[in-house]
Amino acid sequence: MAAVARCLRPFASRALSQQLPLAGVRRVSPAAGFPRGSIRSFSQSPLSQLKKYTESHEWIDLADNGTAKIGITEYAAHSLGDVVYVELPSADLEVAAGEPVGAVESVKSASDVLSPVSGTVLQGNAALEDKAKLINESPEGDAWIAEIKVNDPAELDALLDEAAYKESISGEDH
């Protein structure tokens, strides 16, 4: 049987590679052949990497495990100018929503970084101790200020999504 398959394989490949008229062919979704629920989805859960913003220009990025990273937005980093010092929180600090979790000082001014939600600080971003300018280079990426264990993920519902935040800053001057 294997010998027959080997002999037919070249002919089958040529026949399948030829252009055939598709008028009578019914297109079927690849999922149609699978029983419902057996298709593997690669999307993330709604809480996975949920990023929200505050009107005071902080962002929070919630992970599946209930921890979140907090930082300042690109708009805030641009407004501050060249950052020269970042005050990081100490581990185990309890913060409530709206309380300072750190501070950013630039050549223009200094500004507190407020926690968007309540929780316990797990760590500050040690990379900012040696290179405060990272805030200007990657404010919403590598330059997060603090990682916290979020007390109540439902607090994120009161924050702005990306579209609402961008709309809120569209009227402000750079």
Automatic annotation (TrEMBL):
* Domain of life of the organism encoding this protein: Eukaryota
Sequence positions bearing N6-lipoyllysine: K108
Question: Transit peptide: present as a keyword of the record?
Answer: yes
In this protein, which residues make up the domain named Lipoyl-binding? Answer: 67-149
Short name of any one Pfam family annotated for the protein: GCV_H
Q: Which GO terms describe its biological process?
A: glycine decarboxylation via glycine cleavage system; protein lipoylation
Cell compartment(s), UniProt: Mitochondrion
Q: How is the cofactor bound?
A: Binds 1 lipoyl cofactor covalently.
Q: Which Gene3D superfamilies match?
A: 2.40.50.100
Any one of the GO CC terms: glycine cleavage complex
Cofactor requirements of the protein: (R)-lipoate
Q: Which UniProt keyword terms apply here?
A: Lipoyl, Mitochondrion, Transit peptide
Question: InterPro entries of this UniProt entry?
Answer: 2-oxoA_DH_lipoyl-BS, Biotin_lipoyl, GCV_H, GCV_H/Fam206, GCV_H_sub, Single_hybrid_motif
Q: What does this protein do?
A: The H protein shuttles the methylamine group of glycine from the P protein to the T protein.
Quaternary assembly: The glycine cleavage system is composed of four proteins: P, T, L and H.
Q: Which family does it belong to?
A: Belongs to the GcvH family.
| NCBIfam families per record | gcvH, PRK01202.1
Q: What is this protein called?
A: Glycine cleavage system H protein
